[in-house]
Amino acid sequence: MSALPLSTLLLNLHNAAAAAGRPDPALLAVSKTQPAEAVAALAAQGQRAFGENYVQEAVAKIDALAALGLEWHLIGHLQSNKAELAAQHFDWVQSVDRPKLVAALAAHRPAALAPLNVLIQVNIDDEDSKHGCAPEDVPALAAAIDAAPRLQLRGLMAIPAPWPEAERRQQAFARMRALLDTLAAAHPQVDTLSMGMSSDYPEAIAQGATLVRIGTALFGARPRPA
Length: 226
Ligand SMILES: *Cc1c(COP(=O)(O)O)cnc(C)c1O
What we know:
Elements: H1 6-20, E1 26-30, H2 36-44, E2 49-52, H3 55-64, E3 71-74, H4 83-89, E4 92-96, H5 99-108, E5 116-122, H6 138-146, E6 151-158, H7 166-186, E7 192-194, H8 201-206, E8 211-214, H9 216-219
Parallel strand pairs: 1-2, 1-8, 2-3, 3-4, 4-5, 5-6, 6-7
Helix pairs in contact: 4-5
The structure holds pyridoxal-5'-phosphate.
Pyridoxal-5'-phosphate binds at residues 30, 32, 53, 75-76, 159, 197-199, 213-217, 226.
C-alpha cells in the first residue's frame, strides 16, 4: 500500500462519513516505527494526533517533539510495569483492558497533567491472539475508570479480525457501535469509538467510528515490521 497525501486521506474520511450520513471522524496518524522526522513532517501539514504502540519508542519521540505540542495516543498492548511511563507521557491510552491497568495508570498520572483519556479495548471477535476485554466486562471496567479521578473514560477501541467476508467485518464494527451506545447511555462523557485501519477504515466509518487509526496509508510501508 502506498502512502496518500494527508489532504487526500482526509477527503476519503469525509466522503466515507458523508456517504453514511455521519460526522467526520478524527484521524489518528499511527507513527510506530516511523522516525520523529516523519512525525514532524506530518505535523507541519496540520496533523496533531499520533498513535504509538511501544512505550519506550514513543517516549523518545514525545520528548524529541515536545515543542510541537502534539497529542499522543498509546494504542499498543500495555504491560503493567510500563504503566507509570505511559501515564507520564501520553494524552490517551486506548488499550486499557483489565482492572490492574486502571489502578496502575490512575496511581501514576501526574497531578500536574490533565486527566488521562482512556479507551477500553474490546476483543470483539473473541480472538485468542488479541488483547482486549470481553464485551461483557466493559461495564465493570468503565465503572472502575470512572471512579479514578486521574482518568477520564472516553469510549472504546477495537481491532476486529481481518475477516475476508465484508459482511463479517461489518458485523464486528456494528457490534462495537452498539456497545459504545450502551456505554454512552451510562456514562454521558463517552464520545469516542476508535476503529478502522488502513485496510478497512471506510467500513468502520460507515458503522460509526469517531476516530480511525491509520499508519500505512499515510506513511507508506513501515521501516520495520511491527
Ligand atoms: C499498527 C496499528 C494501526 C495502523 O495500522 P495500518 O494498517 O498501518 O493503518 C492501527 N491500530 C493499531 C492498534 C495498530 O497496532
